[in-house]
């Protein structure tokens, strides 16, 4: 797991908590912020996974060239 994946998971979790608290107290603004944090986290996590895959693929190609 790389840095982007970890930060994405953390942001997603933070968003889930914020969204739940907002729903619990009836604060639509906090609930919306939580949803936004979840989306940002999911995007960052996917970006991290994509970076890791590209890095593995590039190193695999480099190994084949030798």
Features:
66 residues; 0% strand; mainly alpha; single chain; rod-shaped
Strand content: under 5%
User: pLDDT average, as an integer?
Assistant: 93
Apparent shape: rod-shaped
Straight-line N-to-C gap: 27 Å
Task: Report low-confidence residues grouped into runs of 5 or more.
Answer: none
Count of DSSP H/I helices: 2
Q: What share of residues is helical?
A: over 70%
Beta strand count: 0
Structural class: mainly alpha
H and E string: HH
Total of domains: 1
Sheet with the most strands? none
Radius of gyration: 17 Å
How would you characterize this protein structure?
Helix content is 92%, strand content 0%. The chain is rod-shaped and about 60 Å long. It is mostly helical and 66 residues long. The longest helix is centred in the last third of the chain and has 38 residues. The mean pLDDT is 93. Helix 1 packs antiparallel against helix 2.
